[in-house]
Amino acid sequence: MQVISSAVNAVLLVTVGVVVANILAETGIFSRLSSFTGPLCRVSGLSDACVLSIVAMGVNATAGKSMLAEYYRDGKVAEREVLPFLITGAFPVVFGESLFRVQLPTALVLLGPVVGGIYTGLNLFSSGIQALFALLYSRRFLAGPGRAPSSVPSPAPAAALALNRGVVLAGCRKAVPTLRRVVPITLAALIAFALLSATGVMDGVAAAFDPLLRAAGLPGESAAALVAQFIHFSAGYAIVASLLGGGILTLETALVTLVLGSMVVVTLIYIKYSVPLYLSLFGRFGVRVSIATYAASMAAKVVTVALVMVVF
Hints:
The chain has 14 helices and no strands. By secondary structure, the protein is mainly alpha-helical. The protein has one domain (2-311).
């Protein structure tokens, strides 16, 4: 039943994200935003299409990524722009969809305002350094000749924004090809993940984080928090709070445990959602996209752990 529930939720979220992206594109709102994204394009070296997709990611991650995939297939986004875009897009996703709507309230309640607030800031820092380095890379290597066309044609009349029955239906129709690629792969990935969990393979993945615990000088009890993250991030928060209350963890070790736990969460997200999504949106290129974005995320988390150990 849990597998069915997860599958239904995942399909609903993906469907809503893709449909919303296409409806918004049909209204013409993104073409209106293009007049404001010029400075960002000049600073980052990314095309208008990329910048508009990053804006969309702040609202819905799947919507922004599906927009990018459509621009990529239409030739409005070059292949070399895709990776910097997705790495940069981690910040608006964490800032908007993931952090302040879900994780921040839970962290403040379970961990308290001090630990929860600091950990929230560390998550922002981790995604922020990814975005910073991706933008620096884009500015250095993407600006100038050879970049993708910067104009994004307006699908709606320039006179006024439109949101009516016809626009909604047109957006839904345009979402169908993407959903035909994304939904089957998402369902297959969720079923595979459930089988891996039932056969104990995911326990082995959890054990792989044990060397990180030892290298960071954390007590063995911290492993319980990492394993709990495989159930839900809130379960990990609750265990860390319990270990803090019992004096087993200090502020430093609690924060390091939480950041390492977030690496577990990111790994789970990639296994269950991101890899299938990238493969469905970008085909074989999605393999390179998955590896590069996951590596960037893990590297940022390692830097964040090092910062905690130095500062605290």
